[in-house]
Structures are given as C-alpha cells and as structure tokens.
C-alpha cells in the first residue's frame, strides 16, 4: 500500500470521529488489525504515522497506536479483534476482508476503516462504495476486476507457457473468485492450471515443493496481504514469475 493511500485512510478516520486537538486532552486510541507481521508491515505503519504528523497529530501526544498482527493465521482474527474492541479505540483499521469481518462482529459500534480491500461490496462488508452504511468505510481496490489481465501479462512474459501454477490463499474470501477467473482465462487459451493453496507460514517450504512437482512453466501469485507480507525471501516474488522449461519442446 502506498503512502498516499494511508493519508486517505487518515482522512476517513478523522471524518469518522475527531481526534484530540490539544496535548492536554486525552489521547485517542487507534487500533490496527493486520494480516501480516509487525516487521514486514512496518513500512506501511511508518507511512501512516507520517501522514498523521503532517496533520499535526503526534504519536504518544494526540494518539496511541494499538496494533495486532495475525502473522498469516486468519483464524486468529476473531480473538485479536476482540482484544482491540475491549480497549474501546476511536477507530479500527483492518487490512483484509477477514480482518474487517472480525472487527465488525467484535465492535459493531466502533468506526472501522478498510485500508484497501478487494471488492468490499461483493464480500458483503459494505452496502455500496458511495454509501457504505453501518460503521465501516475506507478504500477499495480493483484487483479482482483486473485479474484476467494478469494472465495476459504472463503470456507476454512467457508466450509458450503450457502449465501455469497459481498460488492463492483459501482463507482470503476474494482469492477463490480470483482463482476461478484465472482458471477460466488460462483454460480458454489452451493452458493447464495447477492451483496450490497457501496453507500458512509454517508450511511454505512444502507449498513450494508441491508447486515444483507440478513442473510449471510459470507461477502466478494471487494478491493477498498474508503472502505479500511474508518475510521469507522465497516469497518476495513478482506477481508473475517464470520457471525455466525442463525440456526443449517447452521453450
């Protein structure tokens, strides 16, 4: 997520409920429910704090930031959301669909800001982009709509790719429809797809071993905060990467 997007999130937060204007007033508590880890997401948190400083809001003086990180384990979101809600923050920022849902259930009376969510209307998080309703607002992206174009880009990079592996996170509700669209696009072009689920950080080596056994010509990584946030060097991949062909006939 880019710095400008975080400043936009701040504007939504400020509109939802005013922060303290003076140091003498009680500091506002901002909650953050993230899917990755504190280390890998630090650059985004730093950008958010910078945006607040530009609006003369200083951490420890005007606000405190209370962050919880699922570290790739989406099943932890309900517990983490409950912990944050118990602290009665002014607002909860959530970084993925599962995080938003957990926050909505744990804190129906606290403003929730989506940091950049795939199709929040289709996911049932808000009523519409123009009039979200309820206690949730924030930013949406067009990743799902652009998914078929990713296959087109791959075809430009690896024109003769016959077998394409796709890494996706089944815990992310938006990943399954993305996978279905990718599968349809690849099959319509005469290709073969090998879908591999991301089963969690502890099984990342086994996951890539499974991809390797399929002997693909290319790999697509479906957009997911947990996968992108992984600190492992093996996961710092472009959205589309090519595998070297194992036989001359595949070139």
Distinctive features:
alpha/beta; 8 helices; 251 residues; four-stranded mixed beta sheet; single chain; Rossmann fold
What features would you describe in this structure?
The protein has two domains: 3-141, 3-Layer(aba) Sandwich (Rossmann fold); 143-250, Rossmann fold. It is 36% helix and 20% strand. The chain is built from eight helices and nine strands. The strands form two sheets. The chain has a five-stranded parallel β-sheet with strand order 2-1-3-4-5, sandwiched between helices. The protein has a four-stranded mixed β-sheet with strand order 7-6-8-9, sandwiched between helices. Helix 2 (42-54) links the parallel strand 1 and strand 2. Helix 1 (3-16) crosses helix 2 and helix 3 crosses helix 4. The longest helix is centred in the middle third of the chain and has 15 residues, at 143-157. Residues 20-24, 231-239 and 244-251 have low confidence and may be disordered.
Compute the gyration radius: what is it? Answer: 20 Å
CATH superfamily of the largest domain: Response regulator
SS strand fraction: 15-25%
The count of β-strands is: 9
Mean pLDDT: 81
- In the predicted model, the low-confidence regions spanning at least 5 consecutive residues are 20-24, 231-239, 244-251
State the major sheet. Answer: 5 strands, parallel
Distance between the termini: 36 Å
- Content-based structural category: alpha/beta
Note the overall shape: elongated
Succession of helices and strands: HEHEHEHEEHEHEHEHE
* Secondary structure: helix percent: 25-40%
Would you identify the CATH architecture of the largest domain? 3-Layer(aba) Sandwich
